[in-house]
Design a protein that fits this description.
Distance between the termini: 77 Å
Structural class: alpha/beta
Number of helices: 13
Order of helices and strands: EHEHEHEHEEHEHEHHEEHEHEHHH
Largest sheet: 6 strands, mixed
Number of strands: 12
CATH superfamily of one domain: NAD(P)-binding Rossmann-like Domain
CATH class of one domain: Alpha Beta
Shape: globular
Helix content: 40-55%
CATH topology of one domain: Rossmann fold
Length: 321
C-alpha cells in the first residue's frame, strides 16, 4: 500500500496593505469601491476602508491608523488643510495649496503629503467631458481645501481668466494671493470676489464648496452662466442633485464630480503602489452602477421625487464640447 503523500502546509497569506479615506462625513464615499477595483485590475493586495473621524480628531485618527499598519490614506472634507499641516514632507502642489488629499506613511515615521484633486479635475473636464480649458473663463466657487487643491492645476491648464468667489472675501483673497506668482508667470488673470458681486459670466463654473453635501442653496447667482456653460459640482451622486438641476434649468451642461473622484484616486493609487490603474474603465463601470441605482430609486419614488433625481441619473456625464 502506497503511503499517503505528506503535504507541507501552505504558508499563511500575507496580510493586505492597509489604506483608507478619512473624513467627516465619509459614509457616502465611493473611494473604497474604486480603490478595491483598482487593486483587482492591477493585481495589488490591499484593503481599503472608510474612516469617520471626529471633527477634532484627525491627527489622532491618522496616528491610530499608522499604528494599525496603515500605508496611506485619502483625505476628504473637512481635513485637507490639516492633512497638509501634519505632513513631514510635502509635494509642490501641497506647498502651493496648503491642502492635501493624499498621505503616504513612510518607513521611519515620516508622512508624505500630495494633492491629486486638481489633476483629477482637469483630467475629467478635458479628457472625460471633452471640454477644453485653455483660453476659457473659469469661476471657482469656494476657498477651502477643495478649492485650494485645484486652483494651481486649473491655472496650469491655460485658462484665460479665473475668478475665485467666496462668501468670506478675505479667504478668497488669501487663496488668490498664494497663487499670484504662478498666475503672473502663466499670464492668467486671477481675481477674488464675493458671489453677490459677480457680474460677468463664465465658460466653466466649478462648485468647490460643501453646499451640495449640506443640501444648501446654490452659492452663486444664475447670471454667471453662459448658454452651454459647463457647470461642475465637485460632489457627486445625490449630493449634487440640487446644483445639477439648477444648472440644467438655466441652460448649462451639468456634470458632477464622479470622474474627478476616479481620476484623483488613480493618481493616489499610482503614488502608493507604483502602478497606474485603468481609470477610464473604472469610471465607466461606476457610472453604469450609479445609473442602475438611480433607475431603481426612481421606480420607488413619487413622480416629483423622480423628476428631482433626473439630472443626476448619469453621474459625470456632461455634454461633449
Amino acid at each position: 500500500m502506497t503511503p499517503a503523500a505528506t503535504q507541507t502546509p501552505a504558508p499563511p497569506a500575507a496580510a493586505p496593505d492597509l489604506y483608507a479615506v478619512m473624513g467627516h462625513p465619509v459614509a457616502h464615499s465611493r473611494s473604497p469601491a474604486i480603490h478595491r477595483r483598482f487593486a483587482e485590475l492591477t493585481g495589488q493586495h490591499i484593503a481599503y476602508d472608510a474612516c469617520l473621524l471626529p471633527l477634532d480628531g484627525f491627527a489622532q485618527g491618522v496616528r491610530d491608523f499608522i499604528a494599525r499598519g496603515g500605508r496611506g490614506c485619502n483625505v476628504t472634507v473637512p481635513f485637507k488643510h490639516e492633512a497638509a499641516q501634519i505632513a513631514t514632507q510635502r509635494s509642490a502642489r501641497v506647498a502651493l495649496a496648503g491642502a492635501a488629499n493624499t498621505l503616504m506613511f513612510m518607513a521611519g515615521g515620516g508622512i508624505y503629503a500630495d494633492n491629486t484633486d486638481g489633476l483629477g479635475l482637469v483630467a475629467d473636464i478635458t479628457r472625460n467631458a471633452g471640454v477644453a480649458l485653455a483660453g476659457r473663463d473659469v469661476l471657482l466657487v469656494g476657498a477651502g481645501g477643495a478649492a485650494a487643491g485645484v486652483l494651481g492645476p486649473l491655472l496650469q491648464a491655460g485658462v484665460r481668466r479665473l475668478t475665485v468667489a467666496n462668501r468670506t472675501l478675505t479667504k478668497a483673497q488669501a487663496l488668490v494671493q498664494a497663487h499670484a506668482d504662478l498666475a503672473k508667470l502663466l499670464k492668467v488673470e486671477l481675481l477674488a470676489q464675493t458671489p453677490q458681486a459677480l457680474e460677468s459670466d463664465f465658460d466653466v463654473i466649478i462648485n468647490a464648496t460643501a453646499s451640495s453635501l449640506a443640501g444648501a442653496a446654490v452659492p452663486v447667482p444664475a447670471r454667471v452662466l453662459r448658454p452651454g456653460s459647463l457647470a461642475y459640482d465637485m460632489m457627486y451622486g445625490p449630493a449634487a442633485h440640487g446644483f445639477l438641476h439648477w444648472a440644467q434649468q438655466h441652460g448649462a451642461r451639468p456634470r458632477d464630480g464622479l470622474g474627478m473622484l476616479v481620476e484623483q484616486a488613480a493618481e493616489s493609487f499610482a503614488l502608493w503602489r507604483g502602478v497606474r490603474p485603468p481609470a477610464a474603465q473604472v469610471l465607466a463601470e461606476l457610472q453604469a452602477q450609479l445609473q442602475a441605482e438611480a433607475r431603481a430609486a426612481s421606480r420607488t419614488a413619487s413622480p416629483a421625487e423622480a423628476q428631482a433625481q433626473a439630472p443626476a441619473q448619469a453621474p459625470g456625464a456632461g455634454a461633449k464640447a
